[in-house]
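Weekly modeling sync, notes
Attendees: S.R. (lead), two postdocs, one rotation student

Agenda item 3: backlog of single-chain predictions. S.R. asked that every request posted to the team notebook include the full sequence so nobody has to chase files. The rotation student volunteered to paste the first one in as an example of the format we agreed on. Action items at the bottom.

Example entry:
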Amino acid sequence: MATFTVQYGKSVDMGNEEKRVDYLVGQLFEEMKGRIEVIREDQAFMEGAPLGNQFEPGKDKEFNGMEQLRDMSRNNYARLVVSAVTNKCGIEGFRTAAANDDFGDDIVAQMFDRDDMGYKIQDAIESACGYRRSYLLVDPSTKRQRVVPANNAAVLMDSADEPAAAIVVRRDKALDRDLLQVFMRSVNKVTGEAEGKVRMFLATRDHKESAYISKRGIVLTSDDAEVPLDNNITGGWVWWKEVAVGSADRIPVTVLKNKDGKTEFSDSTDIINRLNHMIFQRVIIATMQAFRQRAITGNFPKVDEKGRPIDYTEMFESGPARMWQLPEGAEIWESSTTEYGGLLESVKADERALGAQTSTPMNYFSDSVNNSAEGAATQKESYYDRVKDRRRRFGSRLRRHVSILMEVNGDAERAKIEDLEVIWPPVEILSLNERAAAYASLRGQGLSIKTALREGMQMTPREIERAIGELLADAMRNQFTNPVNGPTPLAKSAEGNQSQAANVGNTSSTLVKAKEEGRKANQA
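Predicted structure, as returned to the notebook:
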């Protein structure tokens, strides 16, 4: 009979099928451990790891500096391919079912600012594109959110592709411990879908114990909360407690999974390896040209008059102002310069092939001025299609994350996932003249100012809000400064003041009137 409970202080018994929680934790940890080699390989490409030495001479024949030349030949083509997509996947905000939400929800924006998720969301998408997946967590205990890399979480999906169980590990340096969060729901034996409320269990271990913490574990970020991943990730865990999660009915872990479960460069690793190899060969050839091979032919004795071996390498040492004395009939041979211009052209050809395979614009790799306009336009269209595809994939997952975030924080209205919308920035950035022309065209077609500002001027929701406010302020100001069916109140006031000032300032009429009044008084 499977149990759905944990006992404080007991070790996590991951191989016991009778303990439902322990057994599922073991399964999910095995999934994490199964990613070690794949993540290590992806990380090597993302970080530009040193090239292999399978094409180099043996150590006994290797010249000094070969390892340094290998490091100098490192390139980050994989990261460029990933960045081309993720640079266009930053979000502007979210629209929810809340009233007056035309420009984006302020409550969601405040929560994202609180947890620094405005830029961390883009980090999560970059991790998914570079390491196949990443995770977004809403902690029911703290009601905070964070990004979890691929080496620190695992999720078990049900038949409806909804999480049925999940584990998340993190390191609390301030408390000298690692923390394991386990989320579970029951699974219907007929439909295979998760059902019922979420239950959350916690386990801990001392992270200073070197017995199970390897210094060679995989680390993908610089976050202090990241736990290095190796085969000892399962060791040392003991149960702590079960934590209430309120009324949540979804596992608060959202998976950001890239297309086909691959990285952006998974299908192009051979081209990247070829690029690195050819660049390495060019570096070697360019370096060797400074040390040309030389040979001296002639009748040279092997020993001197005392029978000691003669070291001709030291005798004919190269250097500025060095003089060599050669016997009669001796000749000097020097190797010719190796032309590596073909290597440069082959690298450019491979860069074009990599750009075509990954739909990455050539300006990410090299100067694209010489590309044809038609070819550049075709490549740009393919690139935009790839960005839009990733936005659709990740957009649905981001909506789920925000829905759970608002649900955990007790806002049922904003938690309605069917009314959530991700606000993405424009894929293509137009010049000011192009945006102005687009705005005028949209307004000429009778579309609203908001639509023209959003689609034509490519303004963000906050920029649109400010622009509308400034337009209203200008309209009110014009009511006081421009006449409508007659002079404005300000104009009338100014005219009256000018008339009074003119009458007071007319001294001649004042004197005539005073004289007349004086004459009438004398006659009386």
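Discussion: group reviewed the output briefly. The mean pLDDT is 83.
Action items: rotation student to repeat for the remaining queue; S.R. to check formatting next week.
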